[in-house]
Write a structure and sequence with these properties.
By secondary structure, the chain is an alpha+beta fold. It has one domain: Aspartate Aminotransferase, domain 1 (Alpha-Beta Complex). Helix content is 37%, strand content 26%. The chain has four helices and six strands. Helix 1 packs parallel to helix 3.
Length: 126
């Protein structure tokens, strides 16, 4: 069995972590482009599954430190379509060397920003 492209492996790990959070579910609002939602609200954009060339995730980071840190990743930028003004950052998964653990920390921060308090309490109890 051939090895997965690193970006696909990272995307898979981030996706699995996001879906492990209380009340999280995957949706495909733009055909093959996946998102993970909680309470019908997106907390992470995963993009298309087979996209190795421009693989990236977008998440909402409201903490100044993590938002600023994410923007220092080579190729990272405020998310388009006006989402960047609301704290959304797009982080590439190719060639950046960002540890999966850090990406998952950012996914959790985005989740905590979007999720209802009862689900965040369930995560904390957990």
């Amino acid at each position: 069995m051939p090895a997965l492209e690193p970006a696909l492996e990272i995307r898979g790990s981030v996706r699995a972590f996001a879906l492990s959070l209380p009340g999280a579910f995957e949706d495909f609002p733009w055909d093959e482009s996946a998102v993970v939602k909680v309470n019908k609200k997106i907390f992470v954009f995963l993009g298309a599954e087979g996209d190795t060339g421009s693989a990236a995730i977008s998440l909402k980071l409201m903490d100044e430190a993590s938002h600023g840190h994410a923007l220092t990743v080579p190729g990272a930028a405020p998310t388009g379509y006006g989402l960047g003004r609301s704290g959304w950052v797009t982080v590439p998964l190719t060639g950046t060397g960002v540890p999966v653990e850090l990406l998952c920390d950012w996914v959790e921060e985005s989740y905590r920003t979007i999720a209802p308090k009862r689900l965040v309490a369930q995560l904390d109890a957990g």
